[in-house]
Amino acid sequence: MALLRLGSKGNDVKKLQQALIKVMKPSPKLKADGAFGPATVKAVREFQKKNKLKADGIIGPKTLAMIQGGGKGGKPATVKMDIFDYREKKKKIEGVMSLNDKNAAMNSKVAKDLPAVFSRMMNNFKQIESSWGKADKTIDAKCAKWYAVADQMIKLQDAFQIAEKKGDGGRQQKIKQSIDKLHPQGEKLRKSMEADLSKTGPELEKRQNAIIKDAEQIIHMMTQKL
Asked: Is the whole-model pTM more than 0.90?
């Protein structure tokens, strides 16, 4: 900053006047108008005398430093630090670095374990496809036969009800004989299908549960915070 003296004007002069009003005791009768006039010269000289400086009424480096420091008998000027707190910043950075370390460890673990879990899950998918494929062909064949029996049984039962309404006992008797003959075939096919399903069902359910468990583990491995 250039020397401030009688006749100087501007914001630096205004700041100087405000500082003199603040640090001098008693406060000088000074107006912070930004104009270095006689009143400002007088206040500067008084300040310089109190602080054993050359009382020339000119603001040089020594006088300015003394004013900013509070001067003799005055209160120290407030010192503000505009830059961020390095201690806090260090904690934040350490936290981020620590998280990066944890993420690296997690990624390493996932990279190591994920292929095995995924491979196991896909193997169960293949086993389900294979087991169900074999069972499906057998059950489908039996089911087709059972549907044929069921269709005949429905027709016979409908015919029996019509004969019953007409009071045709002889017709009812013949239809009942056909039903009694066909029904065991339908039941045999139905029970055989249920047996096939009872064998295949638990195995499929077991592998499906294993797939769900592996899928949940994969999701956990991808999202966990170590």
From this structure: no
